[in-house]
Amino acid sequence: MPQPLTVMPICAPVRDRSFDLIATLQDSLKAAAIGLQDGDVLAISSKYAAIAAGRIVKLDEVEASTQARSLADRFQMDAAIAQLVLEEAEHIFGGISLGFLLTAKGGVLSPNAGLDRSNIPSGQAVLLPEAPFELAESLRGALQQSYGCRIGLILTDSWLMPGRYGTTGIAIAMAGFQPIRDERGKADLFGNAMAVTQIGVADALAACAQIVMGERAEATPFALVRGADIELSDAPLAANAVSIPWRHCIYIESLTLGLIPAEAGAVASWQA
Fold it and tell me: Which residues in the chain show pLDDT less than 70?
């Protein structure tokens, strides 16, 4: 029988420069009268973690290259942002003329390599954390030592699902538990063997956390998920633990190599 899941928001001070993330988290847990227990999963805003590490850029100090200016003109974006995307992204697929490039970084598809200009003083941008999986493991280790329990930890961000309005949560990195539950070969309700299903546990928990963490002025960069059916593990994790190879990704493969003639299904039923 599945057990109830509890998601607890944890408020923290607004920050706009580097700070001690562990100390701030511990103070915030104390203020919320929340302690950590075995099996808890702590979600931390990747943006808050990035600010703590000083991953803040002043846009007027960014020197845009010729390529960046060309991208900015083509996609109607700030040239400084285009330059940062060129520096941060591992791959740029394309873009839309609303100021956004579709990129891959750290195994995640995201607009503008995860750069964020919200909830930071005007004229600045926050980059994603460097080495996020190493950071997640470091934070988990420090918290486990401090609280004397085994936990999981997620660095969360919000992202746009293909073809859908609205953002949802995604795990940029995680530590301390198996992020994927493999259901392949197991029987369904009618005894059929599951062929491809793998449950994205880390992303599902990130989405739960994102609901209480918010996107705007909530000042809630932490959330505690309790009661999750996770498999605790000390095995080191990296992006390949959760990121599918491009040739197996229905979105990337279909929209790049798997092109069909323009006249075939050019207008989808939901657009008609």
Answer: 1, 216-217, 257-272
Q: What pairs with residue 94 in β-bridges?
A: 102
CA distance 225 to 7: 5
pTM score, whole prediction: 0.90
Query: How many whole angstroms separate alpha carbon 195 and alpha carbon 188?
Result: 10
Phi, psi torsion values for 260, nearest 5 degrees: -115, 160
Per-residue pLDDT tens digits for 76-131: 999 999 999 999 999 999 999 999 999 999 999 999 999 999 888 999 999 999 99
